[in-house]
Amino acid sequence: MCAAKNSAAKAHEHHHDDAAHGTLRGYLIGFFLAVNLTIVPFWLVMARPLDGVFDSHIPVAIILVVFAILQIIVHMVYFLHMHPRSEGGWTLMALFFTLILVIIVMSGSMWVMYHLHSNMMPSHDMSKMDATGESWIPSQQPFPAVGAVSGTVPVVE
Amino acid sequence: MSATHAANRVYHLPEEPHHPEGHSTYLGFWLYLMSDCLIFAILFATYAVVGGNYAAGPSPKDLFDLELVALNTAMLLLSSITYGFAMLEMVRGRKKATLGWLGVTGLFGLAFLCIEIYEFAHLIHLGATPQRSAFLSAFFTLVGTHGLHVMFGIIWLVTLMVQVGMHGLTAANQRRLMCLSLFWHFLDIIWIGVFTFVYLMGVL
Which of A96, A109, A127, B163 could crosslink B45 through cysteines, CB 3.0-4.6 Å? Predict the structure, then answer.
């Protein structure tokens, strides 16, 4: 293994400590872990062993997410050979920056869109509005008259 | 005196530092992968937002065949480990073994792609086309983008096999193989997200 590392270093000619190629043992451990972390989620959904245990699907969904995160970490460590010092830490910095952006994009759009969705729900009931013949603007609340100071309620005769 | 001082001022390094060829390829390629990660993050977010809008059409439970997805996952995972074997052979300097494992990797990738195309064709045959509902638009965009990446990965793999076959395991070819290795394993990581969030949670 040491000889292999040396020949790799020679082939690269330069200080490529980033180009860690891993070992057979590392790849096999990673593969073994990845296979198990794949089989269990598929088994949980296809054989449904936990359907009698929990009332809702949420606990199983959480287990699925945990397995996915674990498997992503396994892939990063054993297949991508990531370590904190490669390229002077810049790859890890880029990864953290990306993760922050991903979290903002994912959680932000889900948060905003689900709130929007729940706020939009009552307006789906259009039949009521047709029945009363009223527009969605409350007729008791007129627009401010021209020249009215903003913030004051205009008096309407 | 100060004028002569100003005249002698130089605003560039007197000697450019020596950059060996490809010294920044690894970091640059990593940054590309991170930006690709953002593309997939946006597609995942889109799927998360509109994935429940079936427009009175079919839902994931009606459409997805988990046995097929499990087979697909196995293909991609096997291609990951065989690419790892190719890298190990590359480090040992064995050209033929490297080419052999790369070929096996390409075949697993091709099998993945064929299964996915079969699945898409089956869905379209059922009438579950991308224009049927927001859920199906988001599904085809997300999974299709991943499939396109795998397709370009296979094209890249074949190109590198020709390169290695012609020029051997040179330093440049080793660097290229390492970049493709990052790309290939990255696609497998994206697939973990796809099968968990789209397929398993959809059928749950």
Answer: A109
